[in-house]
Amino acid sequence: MRLPKVYNPYISAIIATIGGSLFGFDVSSISAIIGTDQYLKYFGSPNSTLQGGITAAMSGGSLIGSLVSGMLCDRLGRKTTIMSSCAFWMVGSIICCASQSVAMLIVGRVLNGLCVGFTSSQVPVYISEISRKDVRGKMVGCQQWSIEWGILIMYYIGYGCSFIKSNASFRIPWGLQMIPAVLLVIFLPICPESPRWLASKGRWDECHEILAKIHAGGNKEDPLVLAEMLEIREVVELEKSQTTSYLTLFNKKNWYRSHVGIFSQVWQQLVGGNVMMYYVVYVFQMAGLTGSVNLISSSIQYVIFLVFTFPVIFFIDRTGRRWLMIIGSLGMGTCIWIVGGLLKNYGEYAESVGDPVVHPVQQLVTGP
């Protein structure tokens, strides 16, 4: 049976950005749980190094997934690659849910990370390739908003489950992680394939038809459609005339753009947001908050994510990307500096709040 197709690019983008919520679910499935007594007791109160390894396992899988996703995506297509990667997420979620040890949990998170590497790199590509130029930034920006919705939803699921006085308090959230992947596999087939990918495979008639349905209600002679076809044809012919590999990214023509693309992401991560995203529970714990008060207070920053990202989506295509990134980086750096100063002057060491994970060196020196 042939599935019906939805050619509205906004609906396609909404469906595709479910892939972003996978990343969000994974973030808060750790941040909402690592401070609970049930988690600490079952996994033997992992020290800071081990907990760092558990948290970073997803990032390790993401690194591998993002490196291989481009090659597979060019070969199999955007939709097929994204849907196939969901298998890693489902299996990883099952392993996390059934974890009997830290090693098992790390394996599950690595598999989850493989999927995040695929979806976080290829969903924006897919969205950009079905979007008009004048709204491309806005539509790709929805990916970040989806990540933040995933973070907030899973965090509150984790918070609610923290009241369960058994291992189910962390097994239920880790099992529920599968839901976005299932939805993505169900709904993505009704979205059109990327016109650019079809063109790269010589399927020009399909490319033209999809562009017409996406941008002009099926009118193949629409000026916008014809201009897009011409642009895609030029790009495809240029790509075929050149040898492409990872080394090509660093030749004389591309090194500067590659530098900007890579290090804008590197510094976006190193500016400090991940400290608060993954370990906000520990930060609030050092600020003197414990139990349910800590968990519900920690969720405030996830609400702020959503509130401040939404208006930015509408500025991306007007003000440009660069200044928004500069302003955001300066704001984040300032906030992290303030948090560090407050904790330095008013924060409590680990033994004061009863969690040796937060400050193991001080715990070691002073004793229990």
TrEMBL record:
GO terms for cellular component: membrane. One of its GO terms (molecular function) is carbohydrate:proton symporter activity. Keywords: Membrane, Transmembrane, Transmembrane helix, Transport. The chain crosses the membrane at residues 12-34, 54-73, 85-104, 147-166, 275-293, 299-316, 323-343. Gene3D superfamilies: MFS general substrate transporter like domains (1.20.1250.20). It is a multi-pass membrane protein. It comes from the Eukaryota. It holds the Pfam family Sugar_tr. Residues 12-368 form the Major facilitator superfamily (MFS) profile domain. It is found in: Membrane. PANTHER family: MAJOR FACILITATOR SUPERFAMILY (MFS) PROFILE DOMAIN-CONTAINING PROTEIN, PLASTIDIC GLUCOSE TRANSPORTER 4. Belongs to the major facilitator superfamily. Sugar transporter (TC 2.A.1.1) family. This is Unnamed protein product.
